[in-house]
Amino acid sequence: MGAHGATQAHVAIVDPCEVFVHGLTDVLTRAGIVVEETEDLDRWVSGKDRRGLVFGVASSRDLGRIAELREKAADLPIVGVVNSTSQLAWAAALASGANTVLVRESDPGQFVAVVAAALEGYSLLPAGVVRDLGSSQAQIGRPDLSEEEATILQSLVCGETIGRLASRLNYSHRETSRRVTELSLRIGAKNRAGAVAKAAVWGFAPDGAHELDLRGSTQLDVLLEPSNEHEASTKSS
Prior knowledge:
The chain has twelve helices and five strands. By secondary structure, it is an alpha/beta fold.
């Protein structure tokens, strides 16, 4: 019996870095996990045989894409691969629909263990991440929000400027800033960055990411982008 169980599963890897894809393909193949290439991902995830997906998360658009795939295949194991150890990055990936998440720089053994567990219906997450996310949700459960407040949080997560938000809400720049500050304090955030983190934990990040203008870097994108100190590749053992 292989690391992924008696029934052989098929896994697809989606990531813009070919070096990473080739490296991870080699690692998983050596562990007995079949990796497939697919040109039509939407059709592939809807297949009837046992399969899973490893999805590289480098921007808020990727979060939206995971959410779309989750809607198409509710039971599909999705492993999100992030470039940051930030709680916001992990929370956003999980909120978008990933079953589990790991950092791109993880060693080959960790990739095999996490992917194999996901294929068996389990999520392997670092104890610290589980503790932090659980603590955040327990201490600051999502409050009742008005439509306007939800719009503000969604906009903050997606990096919308105060000026653009003001135009959409039909308020002055000053009034919009005041409302953002008041909302941040009401939900227990010390500043706007804290409000963004809490909004991501509550699932705001993926839902409307594809609906907003994301041509510029968003606050999530800054946290999700790869570090310049490391190569985005997986070393085979």
